[in-house]
Design brief:
The protein is of the alpha/beta class. Helices cover 42% and strands 19% of the residues. It has helices at 36-40, 47-69, 88-105, 114-125, 165-175, 182-190, 212-224, 230-256, 271-278, 299-311; strands spanning 5-10, 15-22, 26-34, 78-84, 109-113, 133-138, 143-150, 153-159, 260-264, 286-288. α5 packs parallel to α7 and α7 runs antiparallel to α8.
Length: 329
């Protein structure tokens, strides 16, 4: 079977990324131009600035990805780009560039769901991982518990009813003065603390999540006592949200009689969450997650997801548009 080279393009938020991936799993290059330093001064991502920087960077990032992969445009078989969900202006830069490139070099185009990309990051790190499995997608914008039946057949088992978990991390970090990006900063400070503060956990009859209550509880505790031990508060917050993630994931695994569990998304880089899920191996579960550089937004994961779309006969025409609120099918 002929190798398929996918050029992936990701611009859903504040990372301009282009990657070259062979057969959906072998990364030949994965160039990421991050804007964290720019947005830190504003305490979060400013959509207009992110879009402008994508325009400035995308051509150079593409050239560098091709250079690192030691290929030319003629070697590319398919172009995969994120078309949602994400910031509409940022998405439009990547989608427009991908469409123009597809037309110019006469290569098929595949519009790719960003959330599917996070799932596909596991295939790159874990070459032997195949469906079916349960995937917990935890990021700044998403919290989904998904049954991956096969590469193109997903069933959402549960999702957040309010804040995404990454959003909760960022808001907690902002309130207690840690700044942006909040997730890594909370994770670092929590290592210095003890989880000795009782915080609320929300449970539903189904497998949905809620992080608004615990976020509000942390904020109120800090407002009532600005001198509260911030390390202990972070450790307690981290422990409580992790328990909620574990409870729902284990319940889903038992219901479906599935022993393979994967994590995905930026929050899956959290060290406490990883260690907690690693302990599930003692109960007979197999636990997978992407290497750290593939947890956050990157184009290799988009190329991986796009590859599986492409070999299953799915392509997009030049009417493809950005869909900021795109749902997981």
């Amino acid at each position: 079977m002929k190798d398929i080279i996918t050029l992936g393009i990701e611009s859903s938020c504040d990372e301009t990324s282009v990657a070259v991936v062979r057969n959906g799993r072998e990364v030949l290059s994965n160039v990421i131009n991050t804007q964290i330093a720019i947005h830190t001064q504003f305490g979060g991502v400013v959509p207009e600035i992110a879009s402008r920087k994508h325009i400035e960077n995308i051509s150079d990032v593409t050239k560098e990805a091709l250079k690192q992969a030691n290929i030319t445009f003629s070697d590319v078989d398919v172009i995969a780009c994120t078309y949602g969900p994400g910031l509409v202006g940022a998405l439009l830069v990547g989608v427009s560039y991908a469409k123009a490139l597809s037309y110019a070099i006469n290569k098929p185009l595949v519009g790719t769901n960003h959330i599917k990309g996070h799932i596909a990051a596991n295939y790159i790190t874990n070459l032997k991982l195949e469906p079916p499995f349960i995937c917990l997608i935890i990021s700044g914008g998403h919290t989904h518990l998904v049954h991956i039946k096969d590469y193109q057949n997903f069933e959402i088992l549960g999702k957040t009813r309010d804040d995404a978990i990454g959003e909760a991390f960022d808001k907690v970090a902002r309130v207690i003065g840690l700044g942006y990006p909040g997730g890594p900063k909370v994770d670092k400070l929590a290592k210095e603390g003890i989880a000795n503060i009782t915080l609320p956990k929300t449970r539903f009859e189904n497998l949905d999540f809620s992080f608004s209550g615990i976020k509000t509880a942390v904020i109120n505790l800090h407002h009532k006592d600005p001198n509260i031990n911030k390390a202990d508060l972070c450790a307690s917050f981290e422990k409580t949200v992790t328990e909620e993630l574990l409870d729902n994931t284990i319940e889903a695994a038992k219901k479906l009689n599935i022993t393979k569990i994967a994590l995905a998304g930026g929050v899956s880089a959290n060290s406490y969450i990883r260690k907690s899920f690693d302990k599930l191996t003692e109960q007979g579960y197999e636990v997978y997650y992407p290497e750290l550089k593939l947890c956050t937004d990157n184009a290799a994961m988009i190329a991986g997801a796009g590859y599986y779309e492409f070999i299953n006969g799915k392509t997009s025409d030049l009417s493809l548009n950005a869909v900021p609120n795109l749902k997981l099918e």
